[in-house]
User: Fold these one by one.
Assistant:
Number 1:
Amino acid sequence: MNARYDVVVVGGGNAAFCAAHAAREQVERVLVLEKAPEQWAGGNSYFTAGAFRTTYAGLEELKPLLDEADSDILSRTELPPYTPDDLLHDMKRVTQGRSNTLLAKILATEAYEVVKWLKEKGIRWRLMYERQSYQVDGKHRFWGNLVLGTVGGGKGLMKQHTAAAREAGIEVRYGHAVRSLLGDGREGVRGVVCESDGEVREIEAEAVVLACGGFESDARMRAQYLGPGWDLAKVRGTPYNTGDGLQMALDLGAQPYGHWSGCHSTAWDANAPEVGDLELTNLLTKQSYPLGIVVNAEGRRFVDEGADFRNYTYAKYGADILRQPGAIAYQLFDAKTEPLLRQDEYTAPGVSRFEADTVRELAKKMGLDPESLQKTVQEFNSAIQPGGF
């Protein structure tokens, strides 16, 4: 490994590799430093479904991006336009107007061009039929304006990123933890201090990019910034996102910015391990809740399951679950809605699942009060308005 580089990127997820690809277009010597060992490569990006929110004028604009597009299924696909204005509207609505206006505009106007650029780098795309569409009158209709994903999900995304980086001559080093930034004495950065196999060394660089995630894998920092009880939360992904990059930037005088007491938190299987499962990755999430009801350990509902499409609510409902007694909740579905669930999520190995013929019997199996659950279901059903399903 050279002692000096044009650009050093700290981190090994999607953001890090995007930065490395962009840097390599401009300079020769680009180095990616990932704290995790290679078997944990990919950061939290590895644990995602590989879904990318982008704009599109319609199906025809996305066709050139798709990997091995099936003309038969495409002919039965309905995909209305999703414009930059639509994306901006969604950003404002979901964040209640708190998103950074300039950054949101950049995202909305450049998302499609970035997706095309990533295809040129070797990222393979597909339409996420099984995740984001239903068949209605013989047509595949997408919902939630999230249609494009990577072939192979998060695993495929990171495999493709890594192959593209190495082909472009980008150095990728695993098991290399960046401990601090080297200041230049003029409020700038001239490199990093890196540790690997017990050896500490300085690596100089013209530029350093911090793309090393947040602090979600550090229980102390979760409790410190997110609040009481957050140290009990399970981690969906990598155990290596422990806030190192944030802390080293702050130590050098960077300005804290953003929503430190908020985070992406989703409904996660109660039997899941404390950190991500490298095989099941995102299948331990439970995201079909708009098709049923969600109750806490007292058998009571506490969120509006159908407030919006799942895409716009799932990342905040995890926090609502954590605030419930025992930090646990149960999703209930009937015989009509069960076939519509994401079967890979709800039948994955080891998934927490109870089945019964009556609500009272189900409550007993789950350890809930039958009277309370029966009352909740009856009240919900009595509030339903007439109409087609």
Number 2:
Amino acid sequence: MKTELKTSTVESLLGVLSLRPMSGYEMRQFMEYSTGNFWRESFGQIYPALKRMVTAGLVTVEEQKGDGHPAKKVYRMTEAGAEHLRGWLGIAAKPQVPRNELLLKVFFGDRAEAGAIAMQVREWKAKEEVNLQRYERTLSEIETKFAAHPGMPFWRMTARYGIAQAKALIGWCEATLEEMQGVGSREQGVESGGCGDEC
């Protein structure tokens, strides 16, 4: 059954459901510790998408009652859903222009108070150092806990992307802070009596 759903939210949920049937809550939790470093969905995105997916025949939904637990709706991917997922995986990823507030501030850094941008770059470096440790820990857990899972090599690839990105950003922060020191020295020279470009 064809669908005109034009959103990667649908495909991300189909990917999660390709692993096993889950409730909307379980999908959200799964994404938090799996794809959360590069792709996540809010409950406000998940439930409306699931409703559309049921209508489109991509998933089925069944209400399950647990002993002593509230009933929950469990979603299961259909063959049409699996076909949709395979088709989407074969299409080139859409280019995305990232929004990066730190880079925006660096771009206009000559308008900032002295040291304000450097402080934010140092904070960003510290954050990426924490991320690097988390990615490396995640990679180790993936290789240990899911050694026999057919998806493990692909999960490892995404973890390595995070590691490579974090290392690159740490390197950029270090180079940027070093360059800012030189810029700061020139500015201090002007403020302390230098004549700058007017000499």
Number 3:
Amino acid sequence: MADATRTHDVRDPAPFDRLTKVEPQAAQIFLNQPLFFPGLLQTRAYATAMISSVVGLELDSPELHDRVDARAQRAETLHARLQSDAPPHIWAAIDEGVVRRVVGGAAVWQEQLNHLVAMAKFDTVHLAIIPFDHGAHPGLGGSFEVHELPNGDASVFFEGAYADELIETDQDLARRHRGKVQRMVESGVDARELLATITAG
């Protein structure tokens, strides 16, 4: 049953709670996001601006603070793992529209771009931007994340406005979605190259 105090987020919390247990164990994470920067790669300020705008929460809303804290904790955990002796591999395909959309004002947007540049410097982070002239691509079908454990088992997480879903039992589904991200990363533009152009302009 949904918590009546959570007036904006009526989703069942179970899939996300399960994700927070799977994600820290993943050896490889595959991210597809055609609309905004993936949550794992967001700064706190960008996350605040994005969540408040999409969900319709005031900046002083306790619910907004809770949701931003949860996203920031995921990002901080990932950052710590990337600096460990056994860092996960991150594969992310991001549509060019995402990096050109100014969210939260120029300062917040610039900070987010700089953060992405810093993340791209990790050897195990593989970021690619799908340029406008690429045309239609598989990532436009919707956002998703694939979390692959060291033993090869993988889960697919779909985050939606009204419901989240974490599928852990369909390995063929996980392979297909993992392959989509890998192919997009291989055919996209290296994130550092395009980001350098955007930030310089």
Number 4:
Amino acid sequence: MVDFSGLKNLVVGAGFWGAVIAERLASQLNEKVVVIDKNRHPGGASWSEIDPETGIECHLYGSHIFHTSLERVWDYVSKFTSFTNYRHRVLTTYRDRVYPLPVGLGLINAFYGLNLKPCEVPDFIRRETRGEKGPDDAANLEEKAISLVGRPLYEAFIRGYTKKQWGRDPKDLPAEIISRLPVRTTWNLDYFDAIYQGVPAEGYGKFFERLLSNPRIDFFPGVDFYDIDCKIPEDCTVFFSGAIDRFFDYRYGSLEWRSLCFEFRTEPVSDFQGTSVMNYADEAIPWTRVHEFKHFHPERETKEGVTRLCTEYPSIWRGEKDSPYYPVNDRRNGELFQKYAKAASRLKNVVPGGRLGSYRYCDMDRTVDDALAAFEKHVASRRERF
């Protein structure tokens, strides 16, 4: 049972943002912190655990690779775990042929049957995009993608995948969504450009266990904020990483999300697809990715003749019964969020953050950086008051 009497710090949600906030409050301010999460575990969507049947470390909500070029973030997370030297490389299947991602020499040459040199790629892309709108003139995701890679590559590797992922035609999506797409002129097959990359050597489960191990932190899994909000003292600071629109009882309307479904299975082979993540670009194939988790930890010995897979399906988000994963950052939702952000700014003892609290997709390193910044801002505001 959670004791809220005299409580000064409540952290709602034990994902990266909430867990980092809690650790800083406990270790830097020596204050007691209660952390609650409606899930049975901390870590949010980053959680991983050992599958009892196969002994393989599985990511329960899609593959999560920690990658950053922010030195202060890497130094911080490295206090709680060592990282493997895993470098993320993604393959994609289109019309029963496999190609390397992201867009670069490997993909371009394989798709077109060419042998371009790095210095030839810019001219090739210019020829492919001739007559199309430029990146600065693109009005939607389709136009922006075509301006970056040309229509044939867009039609093969972006259009169908995007329609599945977002449940909308790319013409109806904002151009900014495609800005995360790397386009290279080299043979570099690493998916991320970040300086530091890897996965926690002992898994995300152990990482979050250590992050919340300070004796001043009390973690209560399986607790819903809305079951206990009436018990919170008025002078308690609530660090809130839940859905910001629900916090205000949908005062201005509901923010939209895309959800995901995960289908796990065990295959009686040592290696099913030869890589950790295989994308599926064809629109007719309902799933977007298949994860094979043993490839994240080639250094580990696992059970012979068996592997663990997860097929990922994008799905409609139907409100509180479904998990929200990707914010739909169109104009309507952007304007709606600004109303909630303005309402939150007027609250005295509430600090919203994280993916749900800030209604934006954040890589793990950016979430950690945001949490460190939020803690520093909180400390500064307290000094001003006192």
